[in-house]
Structure prediction request, 398 residues.
Amino acid sequence: MANIRKRGNTYQIRVSCGYDVRGVQQFQSKTWKPEEGMTPKQIEKELNRQAILFEEECKKGQVTASVKFETLAEEWFEQYAKIQLRSTTYTRLRQLTKRVYPAIGHLRMDKITARIIQNFITDLAMNGKNFKTGKPISSKTVVHHLSFISDVFNYAIRMDMLTDNPCRRVIPPKAKAAEKDYYTLEEVEKLFELLRGEPLKYQVFFNLAIYSGFRRGELLGLEWKDIEWETGVISVRRTSNYTAEKGIYTDTTKTKKSLRSLKFPQFIIDMLKAYKKEQDAERIRLGSKWVDHDRLFVKWNGEPMNNNTPYFWFNEFCEKHNFRFCDIHSFRHLNARLLINAGIDAVAVSGALGHAHTSTTLNIYSHMFQQAQARVSNAVSEALDFHKDKDKNDEKTA
Prediction:
């Protein structure tokens, strides 16, 4: 209920707006001045109407949210992000606060406008630098910052602190379509040849990466029980991830559709059998020093392999052999390209890659699908040209 006090020829309307994140009761007030010539009865009626309207505005959050952005963002991290998001996502969002908090963390939620956020995003897009390398940050990283700010505003709306998210009116930077870097078939053939002289563990890892398109965390999360030796089917059931806070840990797959099974050629299964025999012998040799996790890819003592180990090993491998280096994730793009070029439809490609939605596959690999469609058109044209030539030959014969 609004509290009304007369102050000279004006009236103060005061409403309790609940408590902030520190448990301190919050009040909002409004001053209303009657128009000249209004009778006492008219003043009373209009004053009560103004009090009801102001109280409704307070309930809807239109004049609340005096809490600062950083304070509410920390509440969002504790009440939502830490519980609902994957640890890797939580850690990445924490990194974004290094730029967001200095820019708007000190501002009240109800004072942050779309223009303020737009200025921050534009400056970030034009002048933002990577903290480690000093190189300009990507447009994707800029959008991640905007998404984080938007998530906090959406939380405020759900908590009835605000009714509007100014991020909806902010114009994000135009994403630059970067050409995906992956190996040619000739390079893959050379890579297979070079890998034959390397440890069996890495032969298996990179053959699986190329033939499966599995994400790095999915490959590192594979366990021996995920292999059906008779059928040659391998199933993705978990991921292996790393954060500075938790170290190496096992997590669920990125999406529900990332839970999938793929059939592999016999030579891959034979390679896995040889690798399993090698690992079993090492386990026996180390005895009590071996820590059994049932993982395919492990450290010297059986503990799960560090997530960066395949990257660093492959980088050194490429330098040693003077071979062009592509990131581990490029094998996933290569796998997608091979599937698309083979004429596999988008739904099947999406399922093989473990994307949550087919639209994700189409967005990421739109250029590849367009090229494949162009080849279909060429095939039709070539077929029709063949018939034209046949008709001409028939006419000459006649």
Strands lie at 3-7, 10-19, 25-32, 227-228, 233-236, 239-243, 247-251, 260-263. The mean pLDDT is 88.
